[in-house]
């Protein structure tokens, strides 16, 4: 699969932790994706928190970051402002800051796909009201 892939916390943790329910599915998808994948600092923070007690998985995450398999999206006040606007728009869901940053990043990259396990991404729309292209276990 070519093109920009934006990585959410769920599949990142699933790939790194073989005990996770979606580990096999996420590992197969990663094998199909052309690296690097892109993500935001909020996703890395969530993943580090979830993997804090699983040192080998956390070490694999560090390796991926240091070796360029996972790259940072450009984060600035414009992206963060858009993220907070999205969080307000989807306050009934509610939308996390990490999810909002990924949606805002997708809006800046035509054709970007979100690699996620989170069904809330079926609800979210880009700035033009269009569904977001997903790589997810619930998508065909």
Observed structural traits:
single chain; 140 residues; mainly alpha; Rossmann fold; three-stranded parallel sheet; two-stranded parallel sheet; 5 strands; 47% helix; globular
Average pLDDT over all residues: 95
Fold-level CATH name: Rossmann fold
- Termini gap: 14 Å
Radius of gyration: 14 Å
Counted beta strands: 5
Structural shape: globular
Q: Tell me the name of the CATH homologous superfamily.
A: 5'-nuclease
Give, in spatial order, the strands making up the sheet with the most strands.
1-4-5
CATH architecture level-2 label: 3-Layer(aba) Sandwich
Q: How would a crystallographer describe the biggest sheet?
A: 3 strands, parallel
- Which H/E pattern describes the elements? EHHEHHEHHEE
Structural class by secondary-structure content: mainly alpha
- Give the count of helical stretches: 6
- Helical fraction equals 40-55%
How many domains is the backbone divided into?
A: 1
What is the class in the CATH system? Alpha Beta
- Low-confidence parts, pLDDT < 50 over ≥5 residues? none
Percentage of residues in strands? 5-15%
